[in-house]
Design goal:
83% helix; mainly alpha
Length: 193
């Protein structure tokens, strides 16, 4: 019996619900799939995860799957699709984080500038302190680290053992609250400068 015939036999048994055949097909094709996947993407961990996910998907969908003539080709095509989907997903996540960071930096730089100028005015400083008291302790800590100590999001994340995304979210929410409370005063100061 050829390897492909063996794979077809495993496939047929998987469709009938034979879990051992799934493991046999996995063992029979794993290294071929891994090698093929590394040609699509050089990330070894991503490829290994996609191979494992492929077999989990096969098992989960076994009742809806059809018999195939070339199991190896089917697996290669499915793996390629899984890898490309994962790369696309990661790319979208990276783009979203990058856009969020760019938008935050634009907002924060001008806001940071305003905060520095506002600190020199005693009346506005009092309003700033009042507005800061409305923030949670975590928001106050993160705002101070970002705007008063000048730390980057990465530095804040490592010093507070929070994720970078959490730092963005906490600071973003705090800035929204501060803007709401200080916006009339900030607009007034912008006109003065």
């Amino acid at each position: 019996m050829s390897v492909e015939e063996e794979n077809r036999d495993f496939w047929s048994k998987i469709l009938e619900g034979d879990k051992q055949s799934l493991f046999d097909l996995y063992n029979n094709t794993y290294f071929h799939l891994l090698r093929f996947g590394l040609k699509v993407c050089a990330d070894n961990d991503l490829v290994a995860d996609c191979v494992n996910q492929l077999f989990l998907n096969i098992w989960d969908r076994r009742e809806r799957l059809q018999p195939v003539k070339n199991v190896r080709a089917y697996l290669f095509t499915s793996l390629r699709r899984n890898i490309l989907d994962q790369l696309s997903y990661q790319s979208k996540i990276d783009l979203a984080v990058s856009n969020m960071q760019a938008a935050d930096q634009e907002t924060e730089l001008s806001y940071e500038e305003i905060l520095i100028r506002v600190q020199h005015d005693e009346e506005v400083r009092k309003k700033l302190n009042t507005a800061l008291k409305k923030l949670s302790p975590k928001q106050i800590e993160f705002v101070k680290l970002k705007f008063f100590e000048g730390l980057s999001y990465e530095q804040i994340a490592s010093s507070t053992t929070q994720s970078i995304k959490t730092c963005y979210n906490v600071i973003h929410d705090a800035v929204k609250t501060l803007k709401r409370d200080l916006l009339p005063e900030i607009d007034k100061k912008k006109r003065e400068f």
